[in-house]
Design brief:
Blueprint (H helix, E strand, L loop, with lengths): L97
């Protein structure tokens, strides 16, 4: 089952509507192509923290707060989605007398 296309039982090479060379290829080798969920994906924070491993397929820590609600939940699938981290640099002003 695939949450993106709502299809089941795909055999690679037989259904060109869901299997194509390049983007969105359901038959890609996960060792060669990373298919991580992007912003807005229904896979973001849709997993079960009780059964997800501590790291995803590439070794990134899970769970992460992918939807920004303050509650980290594992993403569905082998990869945890990217989490945007903002850094703010403030100048430091020192006074001398």
């Amino acid at each position: 089952y695939n949450i993106a296309y709502h299809v089941k039982n795909i055999t690679c090479g037989t259904n060109t509507a869901y299997v194509n060379s390049g983007a969105n290829d359901l038959c890609q080798d996960p060792q060669l192509f990373a298919t991580m969920p992007i912003t807005g994906s229904p896979a973001i924070d849709a997993g079960d923290n009780g059964i997800c491993p501590a790291t995803d397929y590439r070794g990134a820590a899970r769970p992460a707060d992918g939807d920004g609600d303050g509650n980290p939940v594992c993403d569905r699938g082998a990869y945890e989605g990217w989490v945007q981290v903002w850094r703010v640099y403030l100048p430091v002003v020192l006074r001398t007398r």
